[in-house]
Design goal:
This protein has about 450 residues and is α/β, with parallel strands linked by helices. It has twelve helices and 13 strands. The strands form three sheets. The chain has a five-stranded mixed barrel with strand order 1-2-3-5-4. Strands 7-6-8-9-10 form a five-stranded parallel β-sheet, sandwiched between helices. Helix 6 (about 175-190) runs parallel beside helix 7 (about 215-220). The chain is elongated. The protein starts with 5 loop residues before the first helix and ends with a helix.
Length: about 450
């Protein structure tokens, strides 16, 4: 038999493997390492156990079937086929399905707890507390170095930088995370803020499972301060979402909920003020119409009485004319003339008094009341504007004095700042060669950074 080329050999091996029934559809258990989510949509990784390793790939068409975010160290069950690359004859496992090992047990535990707490009434919408309309302080229980706290601070500073942010540093995944979060809730109930946010970024199902803890759920339920649950991404649901007073899809969304912008607040005040003015003007117009109707009724009544008296006098005059002697009596004539003059004067006086009275009612009392009501309304609006701007400026001054330094309920005695006097919260923001300042209770130390080692590098 003549020699064959390497390419032909590799093709034959690939064809031979593809004909193997077992290798075309096989389930494998292993641990993920060297994970990479490529920009082309494919996932590249290795599956390993204590003794061996095999390269693996998940094509972009199959990644949407995975309902969690794979990470290095995850124990998984995968299903797919084995093949080789002809170019270098490297064996790879082509994954079509991936599940976390033990996920079924965790999900079953989650469903049982959810059903139990629902039946107890811990999810009842009627007993949930209202979130503060305009909070002065917000307590955040989260990792101090995670993306969640950065998102919350950025949104609050952008929308309303007068809100005071108090951070309770806590673990947000792992065995002790739930107990840490419980301590944070207790702390804020003893040192009240207006609203509490439970926050963490996205992660795998197991990473978020600390927020499915029964003891944590009961602590959220009995909290006197309203709590917003902002755990994971929009598609992630945990027990704390159902028992808290409101669920936010993301930490950024939670910050949006508790931070009505200054512009929105002032617009709302303007709307309320205009609405109050409209109600007042409408009420005054209604009262004016009633007064005008009363004037017309009174005018009609007085004129009717005057007409009746005038007719009585005319009848009396005609009667006297019929009874007076033929001989002209000048004194009687003068009497009738005086009587007519007196009647006319009385009539004119009554008309004058009636017109004068209603002119005063209309021009003096009504206009004065309307003017006074409008002046009071304007004064009220100005007081509201002064009060709200006073509150905003006062809190803004406090915030500037703090100089973005956040309160730490753990009362640490050491602070680290950079050359611009900004607080350093994590090692990632420091570079080799930076000058930093370490502040103690009894003094400070200026030092030069020689080397920076991040936790991920130490783990490796």
């Amino acid at each position: 038999m003549s020699a064959i080329k390497v390419q032909e050999l590799n093709k034959y091996i690939k064809k031979y493997i593809s004909m193997d029934y077992l290798l075309s559809d096989i389930e494998v258990e292993g641990e993920i390492s060297n994970f990479k989510y490529h920009s082309n949509g494919n996932m590249y990784l290795s599956l390993k156990d204590d003794h061996s390793k095999i390269n693996a790939i998940v094509y972009s068409m199959d990644t949407n079937k995975i309902d969690f975010e794979p990470q290095n160290g995850d124990k998984v069950l995968v299903r797919g086929s084995v093949s080789i690359y002809e170019k270098d004859a490297s064996v790879s496992f082509f994954i079509r399905e991936m599940k976390l090992k033990g996920l079924g047990d965790l999900h079953e535990k989650y469903l049982r707890l959810k059903d139990s707490l629902y039946k107890e009434g811990l999810f009842d919408e009627n007993i949930k507390k209202k979130i503060s309309f305009y909070p002065k302080s917000v307590g955040v229980i989260t990792s101090p170095t995670g993306a969640a706290i950065r998102d919350i601070i950025n949104v609050l500073n952008r929308r309303n930088n007068t809100v005071d942010i108090v951070i309770y540093p806590s673990l947000v995944q792992g065995e002790y995370a739930a107990k840490n979060v419980i301590k944070g809730i207790k702390y804020f109930n003893e040192n009240p803020v207006d609203t509490i946010i439970l926050g963490r970024g996205g992660g795998g199902y197991e990473d978020l499972f600390a927020f499915n803890d029964e003891e944590l759920a009961r602590e959220i339920f009995k909290s006197k301060i309203p709590i917003i649950s902002a755990v994971g991404h929009e598609i992630d649901y945990v027990i704390s979402d159902f028992v808290s007073d409101i669920r936010a899809a993301t930490p950024s969304a939670a910050a949006e909920i508790v931070s009505m912008s200054k512009e929105d607040l002032l617009n709302k005040l303007d709307i309320m003020s205009n609405r109050s003015e409209q109600v007042l003007v409408k009420k005054l117009d209604c009262e004016f119409d009633k007064l005008n109707d009363l004037k017309e009724d009174l005018d009609f009544y007085l004129r009717e009485r005057l007409d009746r008296k005038f007719n009585e006098i005319n009848l009396l005059k005609r009667f006297l004319d019929m009874k007076k002697p033929v001989v002209k009596n000048s004194s009687l004539e003068n009497l009738f003339k005086d009587l007519n003059k007196a009647f006319n004067r009385k009539l004119q006086l009554e008309k004058f008094l009636l017109d004068y009275t209603f002119k005063n009612i209309k021009s003096a009392n009504l206009n004065k009341n309307l003017y006074e009501k409008k002046e009071n309304l304007n004064l009220t609006r100005k007081r509201l504007d002064r009060n709200i701007f006073s509150i905003l400026n006062e809190n803004k001054l406090k915030l500037s004095l703090v100089n973005t330094t956040l309160k730490n309920p753990l009362n640490t005695n050491i602070l680290i700042k950079d050359n611009e006097n900004k607080l350093i919260l994590n090692a990632e923001s420091i570079k080799s060669g930076d000058n930093i300042k370490i502040l103690f209770n009894d003094g400070e130390v200026d030092t030069l950074v020689n080397k920076v080692s991040l936790r991920s590098e130490l783990d490796e």
